[in-house]
Amino acid sequence: MRHYAGLDVSVKETSICIVDETGKICRELKVTSHPEDLARALTDPAWQLARVGLEAGPLSQWLFDGLWRAGLPAICIETRHAKAFLRAQVNKSDRNDARGIAQMVRVGLYRPVHVKTLESQNRRALLSARKLLQAKAIAIENDIRGLLRNFGLKVGAVGAIKFEDRIRELVERMPELGEIVACLLAARRKLRQEFTRLSGKLLSIVRDDAVCRRLMTIPGVGAVTALAFKSTIDIPARFKNSKAVGPALGLTPVLNQSGESCRIGHISLAGDAMLRTLLYEAAQVLLTRVKKWSWLKAWAMNVARRRGLKRAVVALGRRLAVIMHRMWSDETEFCWSRQDGLGPAQRCAI
User: Fold this and answer.
1) CB contact at 8 A, 87 and 104
2) Angle in degrees, CA 346, 350, 215, rounded to 5
3) Does pLDDT of 341 surpass 90?
4) Residue 62, C-beta contacts closer than 8 angstroms, at least 6 positions apart
5) Position 76 confidence tier, pLDDT thresholds 50, 70, 90
6) At 340, is the pLDDT very low, low, confident or very high (cuts 50, 70, 90)?
7) What is the CA angle 69-74-76, rounded to 5?
8) With 70 as the cut, is the pLDDT of residue 346 above it?
9) Cα separation of 209 and 230, whole Å?
10) How far, in Å, are 51, 246, 281, 310, 332 from residue 300 at the CA level?
């Protein structure tokens, strides 16, 4: 008889529930949230495990990799599906959640989540750390601006390079305030230095990556967007076609239909928020800053005339994702003009 296991993972402990083919609970226990402890509990000869399900979360990639190395048929379950299924329970507890996940994998009511490779995880960590340092540095700059405004000192429009000189110039005649601001400037300087260091590492990775360089032939797509796309998609073959990338990144409208009512809302915002933001910014750059015309910009401008600029930017961001996936799969470069003949990536996006 085959068995199915459900894991409700928390930081310290993981609740395990094992059921048989009929749904009968065979065993329940709690172990430390570590791959070796989980593997030791699940590799009992008494269990013929067909599937081991765990919900996607902060520890899921680490635990999933450890369970697969131990020879267990682990499956990472999509969070929204698990939440909708477990909401039917009256009482929410770790024990009941493990039971619910075990029943999900038993009857097949789940959507598996792709677990990224170690290389993509490392590049994703680089992008997240770089973004964090940039956000903190900008936050300190904004706080300094607000602090000086209380004393009637207006910083004005100034770039990141000349920001510190401008601040020191303003507080030159106020030594007590200057001492306070100096501490903030030192923290900002350190953040900017580390941000520059991570940016250099990112550029060196992109420079040696053929896929990223190929994606950067698209107007508006830079090094950060190319690397984010490659690390997020990870394996292009996991999508059945290129047009499935848009919905996976939350760039398609939400449809709410019931009876005679049919409403089309805003984009779903599902999937990776960082890549979705970068694609939106790339689309804005292509529409407003790239002066050289291409068939893609002409198409987006036609959409903007009919539906407005905001919707055109979203549609262009979705189309960029489709083109980038097809270019990656077919190892082709971007064609600027239809007269030159569209490649597979451009034909797929039409």
Assistant:
1) no
2) 30
3) no
4) 35
5) very high
6) low
7) 120
8) no
9) 10
10) 46, 16, 14, 11, 22
Backbone phi and psi for residue 232, each to the nearest 5 degrees, phi listed first: -80, -45
AA letter at 107? V
Radius of gyration, CA atoms only, the chain? 25
Cα torsion angle, 299, 301, 306, 310, sign:
positive
Residue type, 228: A
Kindly report the number of other CB atoms within 10 A of residue 161's CB atom: 8
Mean pLDDT across 59-78:
93
Cβ pair 189, 165 in contact under 8 A: no
CA 236 – CA 211 distance, rounded (Å): 11
3-state SS, the chain, equals CCEEEEEEECCCEEEEEEEECCCCEEEEEEEECCHHHHHHHHCCCCCCEEEEEEECCCCHHHHHHHHHHCCCCEEEECHHHHHHHHCCCCCCCHHHHHHHHHHHHHHCCCCECCCCCHHHHHHHHHHHHHHHHHHHHHHHHHHHHHHHHCCCCCCCCCCCCCHHHHHHHHCCCCHHHHHHHHHHHHHHHHHHHHHHHHHHHHHHHHHCCHHHHHHCCCCCCCHHHHHHHHHHHCCHHHCCCHHHHHHHCCCCEEEEEECCEEEEEEECCCCCHHHHHHHHHHHHHHHHCCCCCCHHHHHHHHHHHHHCHHHHHHHHHHHHHHHHHHHHHHCCCCCCCHHHCCCHHHHHHC
**Which of the four pLDDT bands, split at 50, 70 and 90, describes residue 339?**
low
Q: Six-digit token pair at 294?
A: 């291409």
Q: How far is Cα of residue 300 from the mean position of the Cα atoms in its chain? A: 25
